[in-house]
Structures are given as structure tokens and as C-alpha cells.
Write a structure and sequence with these properties.
- This protein has about 350 residues and is an alpha+beta fold.
- The strands form seven sheets. Strands 5-4-20-21-6 form a five-stranded antiparallel β-sheet, with no helix packed on it.
- The protein is globular, with a radius of gyration of 20 Å.
- The protein is built from five helices and 21 strands.
- It has helices spanning about 1-20, 145, 150, 235-245, 290-295, and strands at about 50-55, 80-85, 130-135, 155-160, 165-170, 180-185, 195, 200-205, 205-210, 220, 230, 250-255, 260-265, 275-280, 285-290, 295, 300, 300-305, 310-315, 320-325, 330-335.
- The chain starts with a helix and ends with a strand.
Length: about 350
């Protein structure tokens, strides 16, 4: 299961890098340099939200309750589970008629197309837990753009720990913005749809790694559906070395797809994992607990193809943080312990 998720994650990273490419398959980071990448669009069920598709909602969104049937007098809705996707802008669900194999299997009942635009066929890989994606990238067709006058050009979510529940909210925060550590939002010149931020440093056990800030100049995509964080190889090798040194008392195990630092903890009732912190432009710091550092016994980070390739901030590292996308204010905010 985890191996399948990691292979899916790898494919999604390649797909997004392809969208950020210069037309010949090379990533274009903020620094304008490139590296080769290709891929196929896919989604997993790491960021699911249950809501009513077609039912008018009021006030702040804490789930996906929205007026997706604008202009319709039919107030009845169909409950649909959708995956939160911050790297695309057109939301949709599957609807009748939806024959196989054009449509993927889903557990929710199919939506009635007389109420809203939807999909009768899809390409790519989709979880059977979801009816489609709720997309909130910066495109003009996204729900964020369509509701900007009502809710403000902002949204936030909480990625919960595995045993908890998260939330999705449209609009700005209800608490003072000083509670959020903020980092500037930057745009890729080739594709402004994606939310990009820039790391400045990484610390392990409160010690700053010897990685110059210029190593992170290609920027990272804030992607709600990406599982693990992907770093420039120079930064990843330094992080891996420091992490392995701090974990030297534990035996290593076989690597997993994309994860090369894995451990066998079967003989250890208690495991101590060094704290890792991600430091962003503007001073925002994301302190990671054990569940955000390791995935199934492995260090939950991977290396990009090159230092010039665009990286990713995965949802494993976003756990327990409220993440605010203040698109109007051109910043991303992180608030720890808010989920």
C-alpha cells in the first residue's frame, strides 16, 4: 500500500514538473534553469473532504458545501467525497452516464449532470474513495477565483494526523494573522497556476545544516496531494547524512520507492527521532514531529532530479499545521497545533 502511494507520488511529481517545463520536458524554476521531467496526472486519497455537491452553503466553508448549482431552483444535493488539489484549477465530479472504463470506480453515488458541469470520462489515476477533485489553484476557473468577492481571495486547510480529522475553510483566518508564520508566494513565469514558496534552510536537532540558501532557488510547489517533501539533491544528501548520524543506534532496513533511509524498529519499544525544522523565506518555520519526519519507518523526504528542478512541500510535512493560502496578500501561512 505505502509502496503504491510512493510510486503514485513519484508520478504526480513528474506530471507537475512537466506542467512547469519549457516545452521540451525541462523544469523551469524561478531561476530559469531546467531539468528533464515527464509524467501522468494522478491523485490519491490523502486529502479527502466530504461535502454536498449542488447544495448552497452559507458562511465560511468548513467542508465542501457550495452552490455548485448556480441558477438552479433545485436545493437538493448529492453528498460527494472529493480530493483537495491545490495544483489545478477546474473542479469536477463524475456524473451519469459514466460507463467503465471511461470512468473510475467510486463509492459515492454518481452526480446528476442536470445540476452542474461534470465529467463522463477521465484520464489518469484516481482513488475509488473520491468522486473528483476540489481544485483551488490560481486559474480563473477555480472555485477560489469564482468566490473571491464573497470569501476573499484566500483559503486554508488542516492536514490532520492519521487518527484525527482536518478541515477546509474558504476565506481568511478567524484568528489574528500574527499567529501564522508567513512566507511569500512566488509565481513560475511559465505557469502561474501553482503555489510556489522558497526554503531558506533546514535544521536537524536544532542545528542548521550547511546548505547555502541558493541551493533552494528553484522553489517548491505547495501541493496538498503530494505525499512527501522533495528537496534539491544537495540539500537532501546533507539532511540524510545528519539524520542517519542521529539515528545510528537503529538498524537500517531495505529502501522503499523514493525513500532510501529506512529503519527496523521491531526490537525497540521506544524510538527517538530528531526534530527537523523547515525554514522558509520571510522567517516562517515549520517544526516537524515524528509523524511528519518518518513514513512507514523511512525518512519522509526524497531528492529532486537536480538542484535546478522544482521541489515539493508534501502533506506528510504539513500534518497538524493549519496552512493558509492568502492569495490576495501573496503569502502562505503556517500555524502549528491548529488542527
Amino acid at each position: 500500500m505505502v509502496d503504491d502511494m510512493l510510486l503514485w507520488d513519484q508520478d504526480r511529481a513528474n506530471y507537475i514538473r512537466g506542467q512547469l517545463s519549457d516545452g521540451v520536458g525541462r523544469d523551469i524554476g524561478i531561476n530559469g534553469h531546467g531539468s528533464n521531467s515527464t509524467g501522468t496526472y494522478s491523485q490519491n486519497n490523502a486529502m479527502l473532504s466530504k461535502g454536498n455537491w449542488g447544495t448552497p452553503g452559507r458562511g465560511r466553508w468548513t467542508s465542501l458545501k457550495s452552490d455548485m448549482a448556480a441558477g438552479s431552483s433545485n436545493s437538493g444535493g448529492v453528498s460527494q467525497t472529493v480530493v483537495i488539489d491545490t495544483s489545478s484549477d477546474i473542479s469536477w465530479v463524475q456524473c451519469l452516464p459514466c460507463p467503465s472504463p471511461q470512468c473510475h470506480v467510486q463509492k459515492d453515488q454518481f452526480y446528476d449532470p442536470r445540476r452542474f458541469a461534470c465529467s463522463h470520462a477521465v484520464r489518469g489515476f484516481f482513488s475509488d474513495q473520491t468522486a473528483g477533485p476540489w481544485r483551488s489553484a490560481e486559474g480563473s476557473q477555480s472555485l477560489l477565483a469564482q468566490t473571491a468577492r464573497t470569501f476573499g481571495n484566500a483559503f486554508s486547510y488542516c492536514v490532520p494526523s492519521p487518527s484525527a480529522s482536518g478541515l477546509l475553510s474558504m476565506g481568511g483566518p478567524t484568528v489574528a494573522t500574527s499567529f501564522f508564520g508567513r512566507t511569500p508566494l512566488i509565481q513560475n513565469p511559465r505557469n502561474p497556476t501553482f503555489y510556489l514558496v522558497r526554503l531558506q534552510a533546514i535544521t536537524v536537532a536544532r542545528i542548521r545544516l550547511n546548505v547555502p540558501p541558493v541551493v533552494f532557488s528553484a522553489s517548491s510547489v505547495m501541493d496538498s496531494s503530494m505525499i512527501i517533501t522533495r528537496l534539491p539533491p544537495t540539500a537532501y544528501r546533507t539532511l540524510r547524512s545528519a539524520f542517519r548520524s542521529a539515528m545510528s543506534m537503529y538498524p537500517m532496513s531495505a529502501p522503499r520507492p523514493d525513500l532510501d533511509t529506512c529503519y527496523d524498529f521491531l526490537r525497540f519499544p521506544t524510538v527517538r527521532v530528531p526534530q527537523i525544522s523547515l525554514v522558509f523565506d520571510g522567517g516562517a518555520v515549520v517544526q516537524l514531529d515524528r509523524a511528519s519526519v518518518m513514513l512507514d519507518g523511512c525518512l519522509a523526504f526524497a531528492a529532486n532530479p537536480s538542484d535546478s528542478a522544482v521541489g515539493f512541500m508534501g502533506n506528510v510535512q504539513q500534518q497538524t499545521y493549519k496552512v493558509l493560502y492568502d492569495v490576495g496578500g501573496r503569502s502562505v501561512g503556517f500555524r502549528g497545533g491548529a488542527c
